[in-house]
Amino acid sequence: SVMTNKRNEQGHLMIGNIDAVRLAEQYQTPMFAYDVSAIRNKARAFKSAFEQAGVNYEVAYASKAFSCIAMVQLAHEEGLSLDVVSGGELYTAIQAGFPMEKVHFNGNNKSRREIKEALQAGIGCFVVDNFHELELLEEECNNLQTQTNILLRITPGIEGTTHSYISTGGEDSKFGFDLFNGQAEEAVAKSLSIPAIQLQGLHFHIGSQLFETSVLTEAIATLYRHIEHWHTLHGFTPEVINAGGGFGISYTRCDEPLEPQAFVKAIVHSIREESGRCYLPLPEVWIEPGRSIVGEAGTTLYTIGSQKEIEDVRHYVSVDGGMTDNIRPALYGARYEAELANRVKQQDEKTYAIAGKACESGDMLIYNLPLPTVNSGDLLAVFSTGAYGYAMANNYNRLPRPPVVFIENDKHQLVVERESYADLVRNDRPLEKE
Ligand code: LLP
Fold first, then answer.
1. Where does pyridoxal 5'-phosphate bind (predicted)?
2. Whether the CB of 205 sits within 6 Å of ligand 1
C-alpha cells in the first residue's frame, strides 16, 4: 500500500523485487507496473474470509477495473469468477481461456449482439438490469434453443457515501429494478414465468470506494424484507445473493480502508441473520470486487520533463503522461500520492503541482505534492493506480496508451504492449480521391 514502499540500497523504489529505475529503462515511461503478489494476496484475503465465514461463495473479479488477457488469467489462477460488462470484456475472457461458466455479465444496456455472444459462449449467469434486457434474453434463448441462469439487479434506494458519479444504489439511478416502486417484484414474477430463464437470485451494488459496511448490511436488511413477501407471494427462494463490489482502498495516507475480511464478514453475517429471520435457507454469497483486487497493486511510472514556477502561486512539474492514462483526478477530483523513484528518500523541500502533458489546464495529477527538489529526468511513481487507470486510458491528443508490466518477486513480464503510432491510425481511412 501507499505507506510501505520498499527501497533498495541505492534508494530506488522497488516494485516486487525489481528496481523501478530498471523497469523504466527497459519499458520506458509512462508505464504501469503491477505487483502480482499484491493482487494474489487480495484475492486470497477475500476467499479466506468466505472460508472462515463457512458459506458457499463466489468472488467475481470486476474486470472493468482492469482487463487484459494476463489479468483475466491471473484471476483464474486465483480461483476467482469474472464479472464482465461488455462484449469486449467477454471477448478478452474468451481469449484468456477463462472458464465461461464462471463469467457473470453485468450492465444496464447489453445489446442483442452481446447477449447472443454470451449465450453462445455459455456464460454462468446474466445479471439482468431491466425489462428490455429480460425480453431480449428470452428471445435470444428461444432463438438459440437454450436456457440461462440470471440474477436480477435490484436497486435498494440506498446511497453510499462516495462520489455521485460512482454511487449507483440510490433512488435516482440508471441501474437496476427499483425496490421502492414495485419494479423489482414485477421482475421477480416475470422472470419466474419465463421457461428459458432460471432465476437464481438477486444482486445489488451500492457504490464504489465504500469505507463502511453499514450501507451494505442496510441494503441486505431492506432486500430481505421484500424477499420475505416474494417468497410468500411468488414462491421465490433466492439461491444466490450478490452484494456487488465497491470495497474501498487506500489512495493516500488519509484513506483508512477496511480489510477485505471486514466487508465479507459483515455481508455474510447480515445475510445469515436475515435469511434465518425469514426461515429461508442460507443462499450462496457472491461479491464482485474490482478496485480492491487491483488498485493498490498498480503503480504508474512517469519521467519528469518541464517545470514552470509561478512565484507564490504554484510550481508546475510536467510528466510524460497524465489524464490520458489516469483520468480520475480530472474526472472525480481523485487524490493520489507519489514519490521520486530514482532517489534516496530525502527531506521534502517544496510543494509541487504535478501536471500531465495533455493540452488542457484540467490535466493535473496531483495539486500539492511535497518532494525534494526535482530535476527533469527524475522518475515519478504514482501509487494505487491499478484500478480504473489503464482501464479508462484514452488517446486524447493522440497519445499512445502506456504498456503494462506484471512483476512477481524477481520476474517481470510485459502483459500489454505500448501502443504505437501505427496503432493510433489503424482504423483511420484516408479521404477518397475524386
Ligand atoms: N459491480 C458493479 C455492478 C459495479 O457497477 C461495479 C463498479 C463493481 C462491481 C466494481 O466496483 P469496485 O469494486 O471496482 O469499486 N471509474 C470509477 C469507478 C466506477 C465503478 C463502476 N462500477 C473510478 O475510477 O472510481
1. 246, 288-291, 388
2. yes
Q: Using alpha carbons, select from 27, 49, 31 the residue that is nearest to residue 292.
A: 49
In the chain the first and final C-alpha atoms are separated, in Å, by 59
**404: exposed, middle or buried (C-beta count within 10 Å: 0-12, 13-18, 19+)?**
buried
Pairing of strands 298-310, 350-355: unpaired
Give 10-residue mean pLDDT values along the chain (434 residues).
76 97 98 98 98 98 98 98 98 98 98 98 98 98 98 87 54 91 97 98 95 95 97 98 97 94 98 98 98 98 98 97 98 97 87 98 97 97 98 98 97 98 98 91
Q: Which residue's C-alpha comes closest to atom 12 of ligand 1?
A: 246
Q: In this structure, which residue's CA is closest to atom 16 in ligand 1?
A: 388
Determine how β-strand 31-35 pairs with β-strand 57-62.
unpaired
332 is in an annotated binding site: yes
Kindly list the distances between the CA atom of residue 346 and the CA atoms of 81, 304, 339, 371, in Å, as whole numbers in the listed order.
Answer: 43, 17, 10, 8
| Domains of the chain (ranges, CATH numbers) | 14-35+297-424 (2.40.37.10), 55-292 (3.20.20.10)
Q: Is the pTM of this model over 0.95?
A: yes
Enumerate residues 6+ apart whose C-beta is below 8 A from 70: 96, 406, 413, 415, 416
